[in-house]
Specification:
- The chain has 250 residues and is α/β, with parallel strands linked by helices.
- It folds into two domains: 3-33 and 81-124 and 169-248, Rossmann fold; 40-78 and 130-162, SIR2/SIRT2 'Small Domain'.
- It has ten helices and nine strands.
- The strands form two sheets. The chain has a six-stranded parallel beta sheet with strand order 3-2-1-7-8-9, with helices on both faces. It has a three-stranded antiparallel beta sheet with strand order 5-4-6, covered by helices on one side.
- A hairpin with a 5-residue loop joins strand 4 (125-132) and strand 5.
- The two termini are 29 Å apart.
- Bound molecules: 2'-O-acetyl adenosine-5-diphosphoribose.
Length: 250
């Protein structure tokens, strides 16, 4: 029996969960062709975060920062949500009314939303939204702007509506309260190296915690089970097992 089969068997033996929380990282989008941040081909290999993903970098060179985001936005516009994104959106619809559910993502690529997920906390923001640096107003920002860096109607610069290194995470309190109420937490495709998101799994009290990641991470030892598979190879099977568990208790 492999680890995925063992996890499915374990799920069949638990009480019906009242609250399922999923945390995703860049690995859930890897099979859509979106580069992860770390590891082979990771974005941070070619770019230094402090040159691009900090408020200081933006103040110093907003054009360079926007050029980097436009390169990523182009790549993601051309990408499609994969079966792991689709399975999460399916699960949300399937368990509506049967248990609490929320999806916490560190990803700013918007692929969960494009796949249909709505009970979604995008804790690091979304790069298809922009924010005026003076007024703080947010807007949808799906298309390539006519000129870079783009400006607000008030004349000030717009910035990508994402959380940069050193900035506070507005949604972290919501994510923490979801994690601390979880009976089951599924963590897919994160290296578990960036806090506070990486600390969410430690808030789960006595529930089942499952990692899906082809590689071991610094958090692996903290999970009840680690499935060494890609997101598309394991996510749907785990969610289907959870949905069956709920259905048998209705
Ligand atoms: P990382 O790039 O740090 O980690 C990606 C993880 O995905 C690694 O552990 C890989 O082993 C795993 N992985 C790769 N391919 C996979 C696949 N097909 N299926 C499942 N897992 C796979 O990305 P994050 O952990 O998301 O922050 O990084 C966290 C934060 O660091 C990001 O949100 C970003 C970055 O700096 C901000 O932008 C604020």
């Amino acid at each position: 029996m492999n680890e995925l089969e063992r996890v499915i068997e374990d799920i069949e033996g638990i009480d019906a969960p009242e609250r399922v929380v999923v945390l995703t990282g860049a690995g859930v989008s890897a099979e859509s062709g979106v580069p992860t941040f770390r590891g082979a081909g990771g974005l941070w290999k070619d770019f230094r975060p402090e040159e691009l993903a900090t408020p200081e970098a933006f103040a110093r060179d907003p054009l360079l920062v926007w050029q980097w985001y436009e390169w990523r936005r182009d790549l993601i516009r051309a990408a499609q949500p994969n079966d792991a994104h689709a399975a999460l959106a399916w699960f949300e619809r399937e368990v509506e009314g049967a248990c609490g559910y929320s999806l916490v993502t560190q990803n700013v690529d918007g692929l969960h939303r494009r796949a249909g997920s709505r009970r979604l906390l995008e804790i690091h923001g979304n790069m298809f939204r922009a924010r005026c640096i003076r007024e703080g107003t947010r807007r949808e920002f799906p298309d390539s702007p006519a000129e870079l860096p783009p400006r607000c109607t008030c004349g000030s610069l717009l910035r990508p509506d994402v959380v940069w290194f050193g900035e506070p995470i507005d949604l972290i309190a919501d994510a923490m309260s979801e994690a601390s109420a979880a009976d089951v937490m599924l963590v897919i495709g994160t290296s578990g190296t960036v806090y506070p998101a990486a600390g969410l799994v430690s808030l789960v009290r006595g529930g089942m915690t499952i990692e899906i990641n082809p590689d071991e991470t610094p958090l692996s030892g903290a999970f009840s089970s680690s499935i060494r598979s890609s997101a598309t190879a394991a996510t749907r099977a785990v969610l289907e097992a959870l949905a069956r568990r709920l259905a048998s208790c209705r």
